[in-house]
Amino acid sequence: MGTVQAPGVYTGAADVIAALMLLLEFGMLRQALIRDQIRLYATQSALISVLAVVIAADRGIGDLYALAALSAALKVVAVPYLVRKLLGRTGRDEAAGVAGSYTIGVANSVLGSIALAAIGFFCFNSLGIHSADAPGTALAIAGGMVLVAFGLMIVRRDVASQAIGFFSLENAISLAALVVAAGLPLILETAFLFDLLVAVVVFGMLIRAHHTRSDSLSTADLTKLRG
Amino acid sequence: MSAALPIPVIQLLQVLTVAVAAPGISGVIARIEARLQGRIGPRILQPYYDLAKLFRKEALAPEGATWFFLVAPVVAVAAYLTVPLLIPVLTTYGLPLGYMGDILGGGFLLALASFLVATAALETSSPYAQLGSSRAKTFSAIGEPVVLFVVFTVALVTGTDLPYALAATVRSSAAQIVRPAHLLASAALFMVILAETARIPVETHSGTNEFGMIDEARPFEHSGPFLALLKWGSQLKQLILYTILADVFLAPWGLASSQQAGSVLLAIVALLAKATVLGVVVAVIDNSFAKLRLFKITEFVAAAFLLAVLGVFTLYLGGG
User: Fold this and answer.
1) What are B148-170's pLDDT values in tens digits?
2) pLDDT per residue over B210-254, tens digit each?
3) Structural domains in chain A (count)
4) Is B89 helix (H, G, I), strand (E, B) or coil?
């Protein structure tokens, strides 16, 4: 097999940002404290705004600057703030159930997620979307990220991590959307962003309800039915 | 215009630069670390004085140790001094002996040296030396896959596994630097270097507690010139690894592209500057993080592995 040619600088930068987002996803997977997970999520969301700016500068799409600003305001500031607020006291004093909520060990879950990422990379890359406008690598990374986010929601047995996993899944989808369909009308993108807010509120209420019922954020004891 | 140096002289200079500068780089790191901690710290030349003192001292071997115990440090240093022939230390063009071995060849030499030192430590009946060599081998074994994946990245990028080829590729365009595979592999290699040179978060470089020691515990039973060789050897290894990271991966600029004495001299200065910058980064890391518990070191190496594997994924499965 021959050498793999380097894409241009802009595409390379987009790929690097996507790769950093995937690394942060792995960080969330193995992070024990909910406040650190929220911090990682905010960083990941900030990166996607940076990526939007890079793509906007590269292709001269003015709409994307607005989207980057809106996305930053919503996902870097509002969503983390809301999640912290909704977690309330439970989030502040690191409620029981978040740390060590692994169904399998840390090392195993990371190894499993590497395999998931490989599947995601492979599947998205073999879609064969290779045009000047869509950096194939960033798309493949987004595919890997979607699966790792799913993995995160599966291996962590606490509602808070699952919520964060869901929000970062949305980040992965945004990443894929950004690299494939950067020219999507602004109104649609904005609508998707506000969908996320609904999810945050729903998840917040679920977390609150679960915490008042079982005094823990762990979902381990939901397997038993209570009369 | 300055005079052109004959090729063999440049080749000798590569080895001499590393051999002479290695203790100095250790001295610089120790000094910066001390300043960051608010201490004045030892002189930068202190490692040279230490080596000179040890070379003058009498050598003792523990009872029951064979000739191997004394030969190992000599061969280890010889192996370390062979590596600068294979990597771009001063020149952008391959020197005649530069193609004797590829990255794997250099890796084999480093592994041979570390194997010899560990085996010599086993020759003694000192529990700490044996503990150190057993740990050193364990952790270098788990670090090995990371290095392999970094080599795969290099191979996918350049089509060869020659260090000169990767340095030339990185120099060729900015697009080669700003690609995830290159940055991920470089980061993974840096983490491996932290582990291999016995730095925080894997090991305290100046610690005196034997239970936390890995690499530092191995030369416990050596003395005199042999201890000096082992100390010099680990300083050589450190500078060699820094050179590989700087001259092959991160910043292969400032190397001589001709045989002019002036540009070779400039390359020596550039190498020392790059190694010092890396040393400052390492010293800052040394001061900012705590040492990991022994059983957490695998997680550190696993993180490096993750970076290296993702680097290969982006190339092989992601096509970029």
Assistant:
1) 999 999 888 888 888 888 888 88
2) 777 888 888 888 999 999 999 999 999 999 999 999 999 998 888
3) 1
4) coil
State pTM to two decimals.
0.91
Domain around B49? 7-149+214-289
Contact B318 A9 (CB under 8 A): no
Interface of A with B in 140-169 (CB under 8 A): 140-141, 144
Question: Has residue A220 been placed in a domain?
Answer: no
Show contacts of B1-5: CB within 8 Å, 24+ apart: B1/B260, B2/B260, B2/B261, B2/B262, B3/B260, B3/B261, B4/B258, B4/B259, B4/B260, B4/B261, B5/B259, B5/B260, B5/B261, B5/B264
**A4: nearest CB among B302, B310, B315:** B315
- The interface predicted TM-score of the complex, written ipTM, equals 0.86
A12:B320 CB<8 A: yes
- Which structural domain range is residue A60 located in? 9-213
In a domain, B83, yes or no: yes
Residue B320 within any structural domain of the chain: no
In degrees rounded to 5, what are phi and psi of residue B91?
-120, 155
| CB of B240 less than 8 A from some CB of A | no
- Total number of domains constituting chain B: 1
